[in-house]
């Protein structure tokens, strides 16, 4: 299998299936393309030759393309059922899917305000933007509440006890919380620490820090 991704420093959508596969021990060949959304770019041309969206992440399994991070996660869960990528319990599994779907379709204020930026440390920006952007603040409160509810029900250390697709799906939010110094409850903060301490996340982070690639569109708060 090949997994097409964008810059590790910025591409939050790419992180999800990459982390899931690395942590679960699912072998794949990484295909990293420098983020460039312009029509006719190498990035767009390469992706459009495989799938109609022209976006990352993109999974190719024996020539079969699966695009969209949630579709990729579902494909992997069925393709590698022995990996138990969703919780085993029916209700826990349904709740995990609810959380992933809510993240997939919502939290636009938080995502647009606090772009993932692994190598940056911007706590002053985080404090200011939470004051100025009520929508982002509400998104953070909702994520904090949903995580606390899941962790209290499961006993942790991950959202549903054992690591699952839900944890991979929220890993980019954990990275944002650290980068922007976003305030969360103590239990939530412990969860963020568990995600960032995963060997798979540490590997992603190491490679993100080694990129040294400044993509202007993904740096709204900084200049070179």
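^ structure tokens above, recovered residues below v
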């Amino acid at each position: 299998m090949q997994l097409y991704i964008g810059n590790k420093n910025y591409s939050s959508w790419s992180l999800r299936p990459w982390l899931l596969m690395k942590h679960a021990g699912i072998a794949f060949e990484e295909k990293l393309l420098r983020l460039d959304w312009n029509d006719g770019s190498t990035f767009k041309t390469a992706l459009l030759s495989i799938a109609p969206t022209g976006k990352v992440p993109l999974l190719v399994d024996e020539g079969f393309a699966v695009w969209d991070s949630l579709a990729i996660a579902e494909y992997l869960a069925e393709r590698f059922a022995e990996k138990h990528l969703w919780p085993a319990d029916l209700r826990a599994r349904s709740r995990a899917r609810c959380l992933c779907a809510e993240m997939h379709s919502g939290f636009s204020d938080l995502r647009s305000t606090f772009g993932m930026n692994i190598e940056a440390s911007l706590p002053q920006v985080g404090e200011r933007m939470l004051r100025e952007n009520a929508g982002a603040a509400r998104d953070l409160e909702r994520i904090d509440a949903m995580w606390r509810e899941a962790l209290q029900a499961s006993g942790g250390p991950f959202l549903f006890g054992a690591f699952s697709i839900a944890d991979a799906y929220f890993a980019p939010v954990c990275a944002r919380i650290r980068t922007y110094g976003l305030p969360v409850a103590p239990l939530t903060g412990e969860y963020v620490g568990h995600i960032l301490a995963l060997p798979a996340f540490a590997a992603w982070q190491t490679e993100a820090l080694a990129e040294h690639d400044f993509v202007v569109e993904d740096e709204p708060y900084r200049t070179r």
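The chain has two domains: 2-83, 90-205.
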